[in-house]
Write a structure and sequence with these properties.
374 residues, alpha/beta, Rossmann fold, 2 domains, seven-stranded parallel beta sheet, six-stranded parallel beta sheet, 17% strand
Amino acid sequence: MSNSKEQKTILFVSTSSGPGGAEQVISNLAASLDPSRYRGVLCLFRAGWLQERSQSRGVPTFVIPTQGIMDWRWAFRFRDLLKAEQVDLIHAHEFDANVQGTAVAAHCGVPLVATVHGKHYFWEKLRRRLAYRWVSRRANMVAVSEDLKRFIVEKVGIPSHRITVLYNGVDVHHAPAAAEIGACRKELHLPDTDRVVGVVGNLYPVKGHQYLIDSIPRVLEQCPDTSFVFAGRGQLESELKQQVNRLGLDKRVYFLGLRQDIPRILALLDVFVLPSLSEGLSMAILEAMMAGKPVIATHVGGNPEIVLDGETGFLVPAKDSHALAASLIKLLRDPQMAIQFGEKGRRRAERQFSLHTMVNAYQSLYDQCLQSES
């Protein structure tokens, strides 16, 4: 379906509508392509955060509901969308979109990039592994970290040479002014003299928030003037609040819900924590690093590829509240170390994990795919 028009149309397809890290990557990519070369369009399985965010940024967005990978009605409607929008290349994200998108792309002769953002469930059943092996033979498969690539090779059985690693990237935001940070602190009712520890992420089991909460009593024993903020929403919100109540931490822990002002929240923090049990390549960590914050993260997934242990933060074992507490105490009791870690992390993020770097990498891949089709 590729044509000779100068501006090529990239159709992004997402399994999820978010909010989440993968959805943020999709939204940023679709809205940040070089307009002299590419036009971004988005197709979703369901309405939600990603639809609203993308439309607000001027990205044409279509919702085509699906009943699963055997839904032929979806396939016909998606094929019609390819024709109507004169799509030159499909960029699908996560399992369902990758499989369904590849099926239609192969039928229509449209090249496809299939990005995998996390480990999730696609390797647990034989039919899913077979589906991804089939995708890898017909699409240009991308993993967002070296760790994820190794996982796919070992668990799914896809040859290493069929998977390219392209790191996620985040935008560089101007730091909020001191007055704005002060206003945000007041809005959240944070004590003026407290150090602030924060985590940004959906309140799902895989994010490990419960282990951070378990660490808080030990931290407060050594650093009593510390507040903890949790930005995000999700299925565990009620359970986590109950845990906070049981531990008597109500006056030290703040649940902020879904926030649209993450740069303001990050600016408040003295330390950023991500206690995840699994990660592809964390957008939350990258945003914290870009904001100049020291990071304490679990030694899982792509985290060791972005956080330099003892240089830009600390890496701790997953599910280890004691290790989390020890690292938090170390940084809270040594503000100068925290500042140095944050500055080195910011420089590293700007150099290797910026939105500009990610967009350029994907555009180069699009170029290669389109040239091989011409």
